[in-house]
Amino acid sequence: LLFYKQLKQKKIFLKNTCLILLLSLLLSLPGFFAKGSSGRLNQTLILNSTEYKYLYKHYENNCHNTFIEINPPLTFICRLKYNKYSTPVLISVDSLIKHLSPDFLFFSGDEGAFRNPTQSGHFYVFLFPFWMVGSLILFKNFKKYYIPILGYILALLPSTVSGEPHATRLSILIPFALVTLILGYQTLRVYFKKFKYFPQIFTLVTGICLASFVLNYS
Fold first, then answer.
1. CA 192 to chain centroid
2. Considering the entire predicted model, what is its pTM?
3. ∠ at Cα 101 (185, 99), nearest 5°?
4. Distance CA 136, CA 142 (A)
5. What pLDDT is attached to residue 71?
6. 105 touches 121 (CB < 8 A)
7. pLDDT by residue (tens digit) across 55-96?
8. Residue 218: count of CB within 10 angstroms of its CB
9. What is the pLDDT of residues 137-172, one digit of tens each?
């Protein structure tokens, strides 16, 4: 009977989630077809970026100069690695790796000074271990947490296809990052259950960091 109730609750949850996603998609569709939306996409899409094209052309030239000195020349390797089909993939993978790195969330943050305090992540540095543990729990229990994992990945896409990590475009990542942090906190709290002051110390450190932030940037 308990299993039946859990299964029923899971089906209701999935049904409501799908309904919310469908309604959100329908409400977003007018924006996709609005006048000027495709122009903005062409401006921000990194695959159309002249800067990235020149950068990978530079890589290709360096590769060519390296392998042409070998006897026999192995320049075909450069043509295989850098061409009109592989270069967009390399650019996209490079951008995705930057977005998956914890450097943006906890250490350096957005390069744009007007969007982020200089050399400061979007979460306090001391939360990094919680994020690591939470990420491990998410992927270890993929079947249970596949919805926040999928949401985390989808939230990365708007900024990923635009180049460097962007605080505004990555704002939709915050709820999924918080889920990861909460999982990490709950796991470490159970692990250090013999240490009864764990929640109090966590609250104290958070308060100190918050006070420091307010004093420095208010």
1. 29
2. 0.69
3. 115
4. 10
5. 67
6. yes
7. 777 777 777 777 777 766 677 777 777 777 777 777 778 888
8. 5
9. 988 888 888 888 888 888 888 788 777 788 888 888
The answer to whether the CB of 133 falls within 8 A of the CB of 191 is no
From CA 88, how far away is CA 8, in angstroms rounded?
44
At residue 201, φ and ψ (nearest 5 deg) are -65, -40
DSSP-derived secondary structure letter, 1: -
N-to-C CA span, the chain: 55
Q: Give the integer Cα–Cα distance in Å for 43 and 185.
A: 40
What's the residue count for the chain? Answer: 218
Residue indicated by tokens 């909460």: 182
Cis status of the peptide bond prior to 72, with omega within 30 of 0: yes
Is there a contact between 138 and 149 (Cβ–Cβ < 8 Å)?
yes
Helix (H, G, I), strand (E, B) or coil at 214: helix
31 confidence band (pLDDT: 50, 70, 90): low
Residues 6+ apart with CB under 8 A from 70: none
Please give the structure tokens belonging to residue 82: 């850098």
Categorize the per-residue pLDDT at 115 as very low, low, confident or very high, splitting at 50, 70 and 90.
Answer: low
**133, 184 contact by CB (below 8 A):** yes
Contact 107, 167 (CB under 8 A): no
User: Which pair of tokens denotes residue 196?
Assistant: 């009864």
C-alpha 44/C-alpha 139 separation (Å) is: 31
